[in-house]
Amino acid sequence: GENVEQHPSTLSVQEGDSAVIKCTYSDSASNYFPWYKQELGKRPQLIIDIRSNVGEKKDQRIAVTLNKTAKHFSLHITETQPEDSAVYFCAASGASGSARQLTFGSGTQLTVLP
Amino acid sequence: DTGVSQNPRHKITKRGQNVTFRCDPISEHNRLYWYRQTLGQGPEFLTYFQNEAQLEKSRLLSDRFSAERPKGSFSTLEIQRTEQGDSAMYLCASSKWSHRGMRTEAFFGQGTRLTVV
Fold it and tell me: Which listed residue, of A17, A20, A21, A35, carries a Cα 20 to 30 Å from A113's Cα?
């Protein structure tokens, strides 16, 4: 089955700086890669996703890059703000078989220091 | 609220008791997923349904865990003979998927936090 590794587990940045979180996946058949933000005690919420037919996607201060050859994808947050502080999870899924469900990374606790 | 709804939000039970959680997905979503999340970890997939069919259940943690979605709408997750290790947040998510592989994102519910004492 799919295995998703996520690094770092914790990340502290100064407000205004950029944050980068990286994930690798094992199943070359995976073709959908979402990122979720989870604030303490709340549900995971999708912030951005990317499909395997594109290499990069951007939404305001958030961008995701995908390298299918290397099987890794990254989340980039620019101009970080205190409200960006949360746990971020990457995930991967495929189109068939056991890969249909999302397999999550172990999460990154991002702290933006004012 | 048109999002994914889970009940109850919190459940405290004694070891050995059975518990059942309910999930109401977004109405037009045909796929429904159950995940378990323990502190400091990402959600761990348990099972999923497409309409009323349970298409993957090999990841259910043991035979004490079972799930149903009898009419293709709401779903229940039951844990029999609960153990302290079952204490976790149980998350439900739903999405819309078509045979051409098009799908919406998975929307998560608020979860049911289970504490087994």
Answer: A35
